[in-house]
Write a structure and sequence with these properties.
mainly alpha; Methane Monooxygenase Hydroxylase, Chain G, domain 1; about 0% strand; elongated
Length: about 110
């Protein structure tokens, strides 16, 4: 497989796994707003599992490049990395918001 096709496949893996992670984090927040923390915690676990898969896909490619593999610039791969970074931040913020909702619930 040529390098361009390989990079496209990795980029799509990153985007798909990160998108799944975003969906789970959104579901977790919706559950937490209803004070359903069991569901929220499970959805956040799923979000984290997906974002780890996305991050592993990126890391493999970055490590290959560090080992001497040469890749041409790919707008799709850059987009995938941006998506991964953004959704990692969303997951972190979702986790913090869920913690805040737990504090609110426990203070009532």
């Amino acid at each position: 497989m040529d390098k361009e096709k390989e990079l496209v496949q990795v980029a799509m893996q990153i985007i798909l796994h990160a998108g799944d992670a975003r969906n789970y984090a959104t579901e977790a927040l919706k559950a937490a707003k209803q004070f359903d923390f069991e569901t929220a915690d499970e959805k956040m676990k799923q979000a984290n599992d997906c974002i780890i898969l996305a991050h592993k896909a990126q890391t493999t490619t970055v490590q290959s490049e560090m080992s001497g593999e040469k890749y041409e610039y790919s707008m799709l791969f850059a987009h995938a990395q941006d998506t991964l970074m953004t959704i990692m931040s969303e997951i972190n913020m979702s986790s913090e918001m869920i913690d805040i909702l737990k504090i609110i619930k426990n203070s009532k």
